[in-house]
Write a structure and sequence with these properties.
The complex is a heterodimer of chains A (about 140) and B (about 800). Chain A is mainly alpha-helical. Chain A contains five helices and two strands; from the N terminus they run H-H-H-H-E-E-H. In chain A, strands 1-2 form a two-stranded antiparallel sheet. In chain A, helix 4 packs antiparallel against helix 5. Chain A is globular, with a radius of gyration of 17 Å. Chain B is an all-alpha fold. Chain B has a domain of about 90 residues. Chain B is built from 33 helices and two strands. In chain B, strands 1-2 form a two-stranded antiparallel sheet. In chain B, strand 1 and strand 2 form a beta hairpin. The longest helix of chain B is centred in the C-terminal third of the chain and has 37 residues. The two termini of chain B are about 60 Å apart. Classes of the chains: A mainly alpha (about 140), B mainly alpha (about 800). At the A-B interface, helix 2, helix 4 and helix 5 of A face helix 28, helix 31, helix 32 and helix 33 of B. Chain B: InterPro entries: CPA3_Na-H_Antiporter_A, MrpA_C/MbhD, MrpA_C/MbhE, ND/Mrp_TM, Nuo/plastoQ_OxRdtase_6_NuoJ, Proton_antipo_N. Chain B: Pfam families: MbhD (PF13244), MbhE (PF20501), Proton_antipo_M (PF00361), Proton_antipo_N (PF00662). Chain B: Keywords: Antiport, Cell membrane, Ion transport, Membrane, Transmembrane, Transmembrane helix, Transport. Chain B: It is found in: Cell membrane; Membrane.
Chain lengths: ~140, ~800
Amino acid sequence: MDSVILKTAIRFLLPLLLLASVFLFLRGHNEPGGGFVGGLLASGAIALYAMTHSAAAARQVVRVPPRFLIGAGLLFALVSGVAPLFFGRPFLTGLWTTITTEGLGKLHIGTPLLFDLGVYCVVTGVTLVFVFSLLEE
Amino acid sequence: MLLWLLAILIAAAVAPTVHRGVGSLGRGSLGGWVLAVVPAGVFIALLTLWPSVVNQQDVSVFVDWVPALNLAVSLRLDGLSLLFGLMVTGIGALILVYAGAYLKGDDRLGHLWMLLLLFMAAMLGLVLADNLLTLFIFWELTSITSYLLIGFNSDRPESRASALQALLVTGGGGLVLLPGLILLGLAGNSFEISMLLTSAEPIREHSFYLPMLVLILVGAFTKSAQFPFHFWLPNAMAAPTPISAYLHSATMVKAGVYLIARLHPILGGTAEWFWMIASVGAITMVLGAVLALRATDLKQILAYATISVLGTLTLLLGIGTEATLVAALAVLVAHAFYKGGLFMVAGAIDHSVHQRDVRELGGLRIAMPATFAAAGLAGCSMAGVLPTFGFIAKETWYESVGHIAGNGFLAASILSNIGLVAAVGFVCVKPFFGGRTESTQHAHEGGPAMWGPPVVLGIAGLALGLLPTRISELLATGSGAIAGRTVSVHLALWHGVNVTLLLSLLTLAGGITLYWILRRGQLHRLKPYFYFFEGVIQYGPSRVYHWLLRTVNQFARGQTALLQNGYLRFYLFTMVGLTVASVWMALGDELRSHLEPMPLDVRGHEVLLACLILAAAVVAVRAKTWLLAVGALGVVGYCVAGVFVLFGAPDLAMTQFVIETLTVVLFVMAFSRLPEFRRLSTSATRGRDALIAVVAGATITVLLLFAMTVRSNHPISDYYLAHSVSEAHGRNVVNVILVDFRALDTLGEITVLAIAAIGVYSLLTLRPPKQADGEDDAAEGTEECSRKDAAGTQLDSTAGRAVDAEGV
């Protein structure tokens, strides 16, 4: 697609969109957002980049093959499920802890975040597989 | 006892490593001796338990597995299992050694040892099991391992076909056996065999008795190759000889006999038991002996002779007097010794001269003296010549059958034995005597691992015949376990001149005469009888099997062609049509009765949004270019997202916006390579499709309206709302549900997504070379859409769950 405007705009939009997707992902537990929509937004941004530039260029942006993202995502989700077993809790029970860091204040963090990261990675990886397969055909 | 099974399983696991390790030392067959230590150890362990078993002490293990389902692993050693256990491990150890020599230098030797040991563990578990379900699991394990063993030469099609046939017949039998065992467990109110023994009387009078007996017997008959399921056993000879010697003579085929014996004290003693089992046994016995004479391949002769002996065992168990039970066990022991030995002899001959056709064999006694000695010992036992154990077994057999009313069974026994004696002539006399033939010119003796095991078995058969006191003890305990009461046995080699001895002599004389007639080529006189058997029996059940196999395949092909015809429109038609039809069939009346006019309380901008959705949908349908159609669909999606915004579901709206964008992008990518729209369908077809679409849409609308009226009073969402912060530390209920409350569902869904990605990837990148055909391109394009649709549907369904969650 030879649209100069889109081509130029996307180079500036891509980092912003990716940042927004991480933002959506992180705020998901308390505000609208989450790993699913975050992953979709990230893959949408990369899809636009792939369409305007090339699939090869987009692969460079992602750095890892999309199937690694899928595998890693499934692994994250599985780890967050298995971890509670070591504490004598049922599979996929959320484990929470509070970390205090100098200057940053308190951070309440738990395994559901890891699980959501898994969802984020799988959704991104799957959509990118679709996009790249279609574009490189 | 669990330890024994574990030891054998561990030996199986390390067998390939042992083979590689020993192979690097340059002594390929040494691994057999090493691995044989394990079953030999179990054999000795069983021997040490002999005194306590004979004294009726309880030797058992009980491990509760799933108490709620009455599942337990319980093992128990009594006389019957001890007898079988000794055979399984003792002969198993010899077979491991023999296999090392038989497949010397073959890379697959480690694999073979592993499978043999796995099979051994399954068989040992089967004879030790005291729980019906444990027994069944081991039963199926023997079927599976024997499938792998028969198909060991997996590069040969006939080997694969035989393996499949054995699996289908015995596996099908197992399928029939399972409900039989369950009925038995229900009728006896327990799955422990030792518990069932105490309630034998009520079980025999239970209304389930006849069905359970028939089902169990079908299972046992398939496994033990009884008529009409006998046809798989000769075909199973496609396996290498060590496997045939072990599975198809000494152990696996006796599992059915074992089951009948094991259940005799519970189910036996009725008229149904007697007639069903004894008649099938008698038919099989005679049939096997006749077919053995028809065969010319050494292993085929032995296979049919095995069928005959299995028939004998079944017959004796079916008659079920104390004397016949003892005779059954005596025949069983004698057979294990001589048949195992004869198979190994046949394997040694095959290994040496690569010929198993008896017509081509001759004069081997000089070249292979040790093998000849083994064949002589085993042959004497099989023919029932004094002073082998085979003689004692046959005497006991004739004696016990002669004592029951009616001489039909005795006559059948003598006839079958005459046939077996003649078969001994073909297996043990013909290949070794006479002049050397063309194929036996270069015969040579194999190593001690080759002739050692059959010689050991032959000498053991002779020793048991000369000193039958110890084995009498075991047979007494074993038949006591079958009879359900104490049985005293006094086997002796010489009973003086009596009717039984005369019958034995008559059998020998008849057999030798028969061999002489057949040997002299005067077969043509007997040919009409053979043709009769061939036509009616040998090919009958086998034909049915092949017909069934063909029909099932044809049915599957026809059904696939009908349901998976490759037309996307057909799939859509089926899916949508079935959904609509099933909704109306299941809920039709309720849907109609719940439809009431609802108060329309709408705001202006909502009406506007609804109109926009409708208009975009119409445009999408009427569009002449794909770009317009895709764009119009995008408008529909965005408007739906707008509805979510208006009704306070920001999460959902956001997801919908992103998904809609991505969908349009993917559609554009896919469609940009396709030709422009063309109108290929007739107006009638389009009308039909429109009708389907309208009906489907209306159904879903009605269903949604209905769903709103039947909400339960306490929706689950209340719980989620109340516990979201306190238990899951999150204020966004939708996300908390996705990643915490119902994380297992999400885990499943992302897994499905990953699988969808693999599917799309392989469909798009791995496909056959393109044909230079425009039609073909178009067809591929349609497929692409369907793939993308599938992916889109998956994304949507995940979003759909969010709808459920947010519709609070």
